[in-house]
């Protein structure tokens, strides 16, 4: 496989570590306030809606692991712990699930480590770690199977067009790398990024986002930077820095290591080296969990808003920081005040989306922000129903 390694060279400076990005021109800095809780949720949340997902014998979801919404298709895709994908229309009606395609046949998939909507084929891509992509329609009829041979395993993907994809590699195998791959020519170009403080402390389910014609990369783990993907030059360009102020975790204060590294160099025993790296990564993650660090567990953005879910230590509801990029105002929900909010999985326009079990929804939602119609939906939920999509409409 042809391979070109593209390295983003950026100078690092910071008050707490010499290994932080210099805040160059063009990088938007967002100050994240994790101390001053907003007094009233209605200041920044206009209304809350609930979307029950249709419940029937075919649509029952086991335990959901990843949720995606595609605005153009107006479809939700939910990936569960059995690696089955369920699709629902934007109004919650059930479409299909992938159970019939799970197996070892030529058009089936045996394992999926990631799923992603593919707008170019009007379907859903399922990735296995060995570089095979199975694409299905929204009703899980077979479209195509594409195979490449990655140097290491892959764990996330996004289609850039019919033949070009981007992938991430698990952090134990390589040090902060993302791959651009053309499936027709098999050419692979590697872009490096930096800034990861810990790989293990995360609830992120997604790292690639598309907003309009732009594609963005949000590294999993503790990393205070968001990147724009430049597919023409095979680069990752830092565009947003999350400034946590005195709550920022400084790498100089932490033991062990944040990420792995390539271990296929001559004279190195890969398995032994990788075992040592894994222990070091686990040691750092455990140290962060055991101490009262404020850890950004989920983070994403669009043109108008930035969303961060964070936690401190092991207890409590955690906090949500919502930043309006147009008004330059931020809002903090912390430890259930001014309301309890479920960790969100995505944003479309001004609508933050989360998911929760049906029995739990009435305990989570502030009904003063809901219309009578929405309150009635809430009252009609049954404990055994499928999960519910929660929509938080942010003020513009």
Features:
5-stranded mixed beta sheet; globular; 3 helices; single chain; mainly beta; 396 residues; 26 strands; 38% strand; Neuraminidase
Please provide a written account of the structure.
There is one protein chain. By secondary structure, the protein is mainly beta. It is built from three helices and 26 strands. Helices cover 9% and strands 38% of the residues.
Low-confidence stretches: 1-15
| Largest pleated sheet | 5 strands, mixed
Strand percentage, roughly? 35-45%
Shape: globular
CATH class value: Mainly Beta
Query: Could you tell me the number of beta strands?
Result: 26
Concise account of the structure shown:
The protein has helices spanning 270-290, 361-364, 372-380, and strands at residues 3-7, 28-31, 45-52, 64-70, 75-80, 85-89, 94-97, 114-118, 123-127, 132-136, 142-147, 156-159, 164-168, 177-182, 188-192, 208-211, 214-217, 225-230, 235-243, 294-301, 305-312, 319-324, 329-334, 344-348, 351-356, 388-394. With 396 residues, it is mostly beta strands.
Helices and strands, with pairings:
Elements: E1 3-7, E2 28-31, E3 45-52, E4 64-70, E5 75-80, E6 85-89, E7 94-97, E8 114-118, E9 123-127, E10 132-136, E11 142-147, E12 156-159, E13 164-168, E14 177-182, E15 188-192, E16 208-211, E17 214-217, E18 225-230, E19 235-243, H1 270-290, E20 294-301, E21 305-312, E22 319-324, E23 329-334, E24 344-348, E25 351-356, H2 361-364, H3 372-380, E26 388-394
Parallel strand pairs: 1-15, 2-19
Antiparallel strand pairs: 3-26, 4-5, 5-6, 6-7, 8-9, 9-10, 10-11, 12-13, 13-14, 14-15, 16-17, 17-18, 18-19, 20-21, 21-22, 22-23, 24-25, 25-26
């Amino acid at each position: 496989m042809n391979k070109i390694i593209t390295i983003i060279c950026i100078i690092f400076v910071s008050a707490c570590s010499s290994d932080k990005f210099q805040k160059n021109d063009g990088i938007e800095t967002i100050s994240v306030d994790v101390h001053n809780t907003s007094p009233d949720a209605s200041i920044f949340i206009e209304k809350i809606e609930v979307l029950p997902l249709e419940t029937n014998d075919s649509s029952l979801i086991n335990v959901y692991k990843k949720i995606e919404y595609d605005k153009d298709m107006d479809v939700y895709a939910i990936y569960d712990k059995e690696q089955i994908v369920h699709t629902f229309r934007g109004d919650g009606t059930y479409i299909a699930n992938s159970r019939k395609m799970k197996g070892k046949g030529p058009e089936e998939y045996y394992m999926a480590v990631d799923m992603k909507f593919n707008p170019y084929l009007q379907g859903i891509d399922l990735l296995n770690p060995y570089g095979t992509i199975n694409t299905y329609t929204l009703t899980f009829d077979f479209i195509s199977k594409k195979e490449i041979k990655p140097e290491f395993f892959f764990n996330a993907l996004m289609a850039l067009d019919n033949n070009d994809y981007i992938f991430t590699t698990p952090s134990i195998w390589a040090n902060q790398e993302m791959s651009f791959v053309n499936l027709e020519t098999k050419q692979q170009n590697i872009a490096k990024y930096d800034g990861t403080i810990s790989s293990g402390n995360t609830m992120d389910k997604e790292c690639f986002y598309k907003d309009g014609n732009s594609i963005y990369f949000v590294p999993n783990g503790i990393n205070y930077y968001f990147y724009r993907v430049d597919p023409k030059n095979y680069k990752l360009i830092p565009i947003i820095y999350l400034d946590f102020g005195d709550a920022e975790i400084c790498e100089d204060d932490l033991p062990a290591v944040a990420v792995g590294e390539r271990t296929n160099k001559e004279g190195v025993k890969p398995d032994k080296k990788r075992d040592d790296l894994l222990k070091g990564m686990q040691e750092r993650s455990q140290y962060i969990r055991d101490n009262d660090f404020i850890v950004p567990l989920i983070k994403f953005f669009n043109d108008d808003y930035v969303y961060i879910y964070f936690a401190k230590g092991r207890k409590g509801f955690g906090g949500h920081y919502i930043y309006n990029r147009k008004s330059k105002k931020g809002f903090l929900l912390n430890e259930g005040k001014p309301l309890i909010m479920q960790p969100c999985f995505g944003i479309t326009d001004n609508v933050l989306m989360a998911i929760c079990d049906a029995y739990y929804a009435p305990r989570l939602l502030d009904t003063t922000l809901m219309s009578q119609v929405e309150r009635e939906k809430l009252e009609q939920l049954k404990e055994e129903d499928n999960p519910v999509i929660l929509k938080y409409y942010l003020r513009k």
